[in-house]
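Suppose you are handed a protein chain with no further information: no name, no annotation, nothing but its sequence. What can you learn? This example shows the usual starting point.
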Amino acid sequence: MEVKVEDKKSNLVLENRKKLSITGVNEVVSFNDEIIILNTNLGALTIKGNELKMNKLDVQNGDMKITGSINSFAYTGNQSRKNNESIIARLFR
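A reasonable first move is to predict its three-dimensional structure. Written in structure tokens, the prediction is:
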């Protein structure tokens, strides 16, 4: 059974570039105070900024709240990236 992108729910709400609420989070790949990388229902999401903090993470519902100075966020593809795949492995496919 194939799941369509339309069937997957994911929302982003940005308030004054200081608070970001996200739904549809599957896992946190990596984070520090300048970059957070997430796997969501709609693909990998990269959030960049300064003094970023994850205030709430509800794993069961996939809800997350991030505070700090948010400069950008972008989806990097439709599919979640594999955590253990190195950049060298991706280059030499």
